[in-house]
Amino acid sequence: MTQMTVVxxxxxxxxxxxxxxxxxxxxxxxxxxxxxxxxxxxxxxxQRIGGRILTDTSSSKHGYSYDLGAAWFHDxxxxxxxxxxxxxxxxxxxxxxxxxxKDIAVYAEEDDGPLDMDGLKINRVVEEMExxxxxxxxxxxxxxxxxxxxxxxxxxxxxxxxxTTQQKKxxxxxxxxxxxxxxxxxDQISAKFCVMDHNGRxxxxxxxxxxxxxxxxxxxxxxxxxxxQQIKSIDTSNASYVEVETxxxxxxxxxxxxxxVPLSILKLEPSHPYxxxxxxxxxxxxxxxxxxxxxxxxxxxxxxxxxVWWPTDQDRFLILPKANAGNVKKELDDIPPPxxxxxxxxxxxxxxxKNPRASLVLLTQAPLTNYLEANPEKAWxxxxxxxxxxxxxxxxxxxxxxxxxxxxxxxxxxxxxxxxHPGDEAEGINHFxxxxxxxxxxxxxxxxxxxxxxxxxxxCVHGAYMSGQREAQWILDEWKQKASL
Amino acid sequence: MTQMTVVxxxxxxxxxxxxxxxxxxxxxxxxxxxxxxxxxxxxxxxQRIGGRILTDTSSSKHGYSYDLGAAWFHDxxxxxxxxxxxxxxxxxxxxxxxxxxKDIAVYAEEDDGPLDMDGLKINRVVEEMExxxxxxxxxxxxxxxxxxxxxxxxxxxxxxxxxTTQQKKxxxxxxxxxxxxxxxxxDQISAKFCVMDHNGRxxxxxxxxxxxxxxxxxxxxxxxxxxxQQIKSIDTSNASYVEVETxxxxxxxxxxxxxxVPLSILKLEPSHPYxxxxxxxxxxxxxxxxxxxxxxxxxxxxxxxxxVWWPTDQDRFLILPKANAGNVKKELDDIPPPxxxxxxxxxxxxxxxKNPRASLVLLTQAPLTNYLEANPEKAWxxxxxxxxxxxxxxxxxxxxxxxxxxxxxxxxxxxxxxxxHPGDEAEGINHFxxxxxxxxxxxxxxxxxxxxxxxxxxxCVHGAYMSGQREAQWILDEWKQKASL
Lengths: 485, 485
Prior knowledge:
The structure is a homodimer.
Chain A: E1 5-14, H1 18-28, E2 40-43, E3 55-56, E4 66-67, E5 72-73, H2 80-87, H3 93-96, E6 97-98, E7 105-107, H4 122-138, H5 148-159, H6 165-175, H7 179-182, H8 191-194, E8 203-205, H9 210-218, E9 225-226, E10 231-235, E11 242-246, E12 250-259, H10 263-266, E13 277-279, H11 284-291, E14 294-295, E15 299-304, E16 316-319, E17 343-347, H12 348-351, E18 359-364, H13 368-374, H14 379-388, E19 401-404, E20 418-419, E21 446-448, H15 461-484
Parallel strand pairs in A: 1-2, 1-12, 2-9, 7-16, 10-13, 12-21
Antiparallel strand pairs in A: 3-4, 5-8, 6-8, 10-11, 11-12, 14-20, 15-18, 15-19, 16-17, 17-18
């Protein structure tokens, strides 16, 4: 029998990613001083904090740092993380950020140089395809979902005759850039929910996102975060406290649990080595909600070179996949043929505009992410033919270093963030909110935070951050309400 | 005393523009054969039919034709006029249409060549400005309206520090292209309603829009349309019929009146020589609704040249106005200084892609439209400095011909189409629908059609067309309902 340590706390936050840290930070730093430092504990399964924010400073051969997880401030008009960081001086807009939103330079296997996207008016057609999708699903709300390639077949049937030969050749392949938003292959992407609306431009965070994590951690009393504490079970059977137990033998009695674990962990069976055992079991509507959402695997492959050999006047490159790539969602046991997936690269020679860097940061999608994160040594073999397009036919040098993200190989992450498959229900996100329609009033002591619980900024740092703030506020409000009774 | 002719009809359509003709066509051609040809009459004030569709075939020195009014199929994904014309063979997609939606080539007074819009990432900022406007007004629905330049001041105050020097220099001036959508100067444009959503690409109708009018007219029995019949009064005081009288002495007793006159006519006082006298007067809520909508003056200036001297690989040109153009809504009594207004030209050397034409079709906005339509001989003097930008500094030849649209000088048009000023209510359009909230059930015999009554396609040919169909259907439905009693 393992020895048990029992702790009594007010709030146990499970997971020291941005949402959990923000929640703990908001509770500890609330002006009402309701909580003393020892009232709050954050359990983190890993040896490091930050979750899917991970600024790697040790892998580069050039001494560069790379965000292997989140890297952009999306929705920059309404992004509270960005605004607060500018306001508190931790983010210098001129040196720490870059809008990498020049039109993407697009290449195709069959062409030598970049495509004349403007002359061929390809973006206008892609925009029209997106509008078609919106009209298709939202004019009649009950319309059945399908995959992205399936809805494009419908578009082509109806309007293909209005496209030029060149537009027909390229436009569908261009839409596969959505794979690099969702981290899944297009035949897995829900057509209904694929078209996004952005609150302003996307700002690339060239400072490295870790500063946000460090800022939050610095605002917590020493000892608040306990690392290497993997959650094992949550017991809500006692009305006066919730009992949380970790695999290392730590047992906590707490008034509230704030669950900041990824959706990928919540979706595991209780019997799974990384799953959570619930007593009593999760209510049916909750497990149904978990089934109605999927989790993607956006990854990164970073190639460092001796010198920059590609165009420096482009922010981003997209090398199109071939037209008939077939069933691309199938798990890979070797590298696929070239041009099976769209290749998307962020140009660090342009994005780091003050100090150009000799590296290309590629985004990858499942199932390629899973394969390449497990086999990083194969990455250059797969990508060399596509990246050679950027050199206009001349030989390209081999990289001096290859870095891959860890997400699919990390049992505590198991992928990247929420990604909707055909038939998924975006409304499922609502179930994480502790309302009557959520986890249920009988268990309001369990609060869910994280990017997968965010109605605004789902999948984004600021969405996770605001979700932490949201649940801290809920706990504080309930506290005040109880105090006034 | 004038001699009166009295006619008894079922439906009197007032105005032979596209909405009126479509309504009459739908009534006459309804499969139920409820109406005999003599039941329907269309009164047209002018000597010609078509209203604000006007394909000019006689003014060109090259033998070209020009649409002086509507010229695009907007919302081409859902445009019924386009779809029906393709289906019935009257519009050949390959030869009769052209998507003139290549990124606009933009020039500025202070620069020699076209701006590097992509490199300067100007469109991204303009898109963000539009998003800012949307968020500003629709996050809190009661937010007070203002003009376009006023909302941009707010954007710049809040986010100007995130723009590059070049973006600051150009972006606000680029947004003045909205003047060429609305036909009014930006300081008259409602910020709240300026950002549009389009159902697909815009297709330039190079066949000439008159074919739509001719098709509808050909489907009406001879004698249905009576020209030179300006409406003078509408009397609804008798429950068994509505009495309509024209200035030429024609008097009709009719069961229904379909009013297809422009908003500009409806807004006139009854005492105005072109106004309509109502007995009893229009209900208060109706005159209030009319006050809450404005009417723009989009016009055209067409320059024909001996040969093409400008770039042939661009669809459209935008020459930016200067930064501080001041109060540009003020009525003009002479041509303004160069660069006071944005100059927008459709390149007929590109749009007529099968047979390039040596002409530039400029769109104009009030108050410039009003001045130039009255003084066409001044048009080249005003536009020469701006259009010279397209020649990269070399001398440009004078045009061999200048054609202007007639809209502000035509007392039956008085401008172009609905355009919302700050504080206007887009919902005012609802008042034209014959519901309880509209003109009122007591006067359901009066039906309103036209672009200004269209919730979808407002200001567009297809919006006007569908409004004609809508009211024809209403009349047919009511007829059937009464027949079944």
